[in-house]
């Protein structure tokens, strides 16, 4: 709105106009079809993005190793192989390969944010369940994986920050986006081998000296090979900061989600 409009309108009229604008946009949003992105069936307001049926069909339905993402028969933190090396814990509500991954990818590549709130709530439900079972401990703060300023300007948003902000609101945990920066504008990780990913991200991030927390959750949209979060986590762990990883979906290695009863 041009500045001169505010100068010639009295304050009471300005407030009425703003209220009318808010009511109008709310009415318009409520009058538009509210349909599931997957099955296109109507979703009762205020829910948006993905209906409960499609959401439940895409979520994990059994115990998952927090190290590698393998299906397990009992709810423990690690499978037998991961018990030996105790890797960093990765918490996700679903597999990237089982129905919901396309909409996680659409957040970053298409700016399609309709599914973000419902996927964040699914992640929060998973976090609370694992905490109740004693498999994880809630962090003191939530830290999003940063974008390089040039990439942020090109894309217009950082999907990891949007997810972290939603989780911060839902869990009432502080969101800390200062202190961790991306100092190199690296090439995209998609399509690179594991070795290429590691070389691509070497020394790409920097952590400020005055970081004040001892337990954090590092947030990203998807974890595939884990190269990005591992590169960042090493910076924190060198300062004796405990790191767990939260994401909307995990792209685990092929075969790890096979039905354990069929093996």
UniProtKB/TrEMBL annotation:
Domain Double zinc ribbon: from-to ranges: 32-83
TM region(s), chain numbering: none
Origin: domain of life: Bacteria
InterPro entries per the UniProt record, alphabetical: ComF/GntX_DNA_util-trans, DZR_2, PRTase-like, PRTase_dom
Gene3D superfamilies documented for this protein: 3.40.50.2020
Pfam families, per database record: DZR_2
Protein family (similarity comment): Belongs to the ComF/GntX family.
Protein name stated in the entry: ComF family protein
Organism: Shewanella septentrionalis
């Amino acid at each position: 709105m041009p500045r001169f409009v505010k100068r010639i309108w009295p304050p009471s009229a300005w407030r009425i106009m703003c209220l009318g604008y808010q009511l109008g946009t709310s009415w318009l949003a409520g009058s538009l079809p509210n349909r599931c992105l997957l099955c296109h069936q109507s979703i009762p307001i205020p829910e948006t993005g993905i209906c409960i049926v499609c959401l439940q069909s895409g979520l994990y339905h059994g115990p998952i190793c927090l190290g590698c993402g393998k299906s397990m028969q009992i709810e423990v933190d690690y499978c037998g192989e991961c018990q030996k090396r105790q890797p960093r814990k990765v918490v996700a509500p679903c597999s990237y390969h089982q129905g919901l991954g396309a909409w996680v990818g659409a957040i970053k590549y298409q700016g399609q944010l309709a599914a973000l709130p419902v996927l964040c709530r699914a992640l929060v439900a998973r976090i609370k369940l694992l905490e109740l079972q004693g498999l994880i401990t809630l962090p003191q703060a939530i830290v999003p994986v940063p974008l390089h300023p040039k990439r942020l300007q090109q894309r217009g948003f950082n999907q990891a920050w949007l997810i972290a902000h939603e989780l911060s609101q839902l869990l009432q945990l502080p969101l800390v986006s200062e202190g961790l920066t991306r100092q190199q504008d690296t090439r995209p990780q998609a399509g690179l081998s594991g070795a290429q990913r590691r070389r691509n991200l070497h020394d790409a991030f920097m952590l400020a000296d005055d970081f004040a927390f001892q337990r954090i959750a590092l947030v990203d949209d998807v974890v595939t090979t884990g190269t990005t979060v591992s590169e960042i986590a090493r910076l924190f762990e060198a300062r004796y900061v405990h790191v767990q990883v939260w994401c909307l979906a995990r792209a685990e290695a092929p075969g790890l989600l096979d039905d354990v009863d069929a093996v």
